[in-house]
Write a structure and sequence with these properties.
Layout (H helix, E strand, L loop, with lengths): L3 E4 L2 E4 L4 E7 L8 E7 L6 E6 L6 E3 L7 E6 L4 E6 L8 E8 L17 E2 L3 E6 L1
Parallel strand pairs: 2-11
Antiparallel strand pairs: 1-3, 3-8, 4-5, 4-9, 5-6, 7-8, 9-10, 9-11
Length: 128
């Protein structure tokens, strides 16, 4: 069982920055691929960013490329999402997720259905 706890959300203005953190329980965090997803009101949950367990590979949805950066500190069991130049359309609940079978995949998954564990979410609201 893996527990994920997100933090760092809040209310900001367009153009501001936020850093989300997600801390995992357990001793095998470094073996998981990790992802960030978001869900806006009335919309489907969508992929935002992912990072491989080896830290070598990162992936982003097009709308956040150049603005968001995913990183991880395996020694701290933590994955981060640095969000810069925030826009009102970034407003959503942000979730981190762990793929414990990432070692079976050729690339990090961007599909929510492949992730096994999810955090409770943290609200990010960007005002115009």
């Amino acid at each position: 069982q893996v527990q994920l706890v997100e933090s760092g959300g809040g209310l900001v203005r367009a153009g501001d920055s936020l850093r989300l953190s997600c801390t995992a329980s357990g001793r095998t965090f470094s073996s998981y691929d990790m992802g960030w997803f978001r869900q806006a009101p009335g919309k489907e949950r969508e992929f935002v960013a992912a990072i491989s367990r080896s830290i070598e590979n990162t992936y982003y949805t097009d709308s956040v490329k150049g603005r968001f950066t995913i990183s991880r500190a395996n020694a701290k069991n933590t994955v981060y999402l640095q969000m810069n130049t925030l826009k009102p359309e970034d407003t959503a609940v942000y979730y981190c997720a762990a793929d414990i079978r990432g070692n079976l995949r050729p690339v990090v998954s961007t599909y929510a259905g492949t992730y096994d564990y999810w955090g409770q979410g943290t609200q990010v609201t960007v005002s115009s």
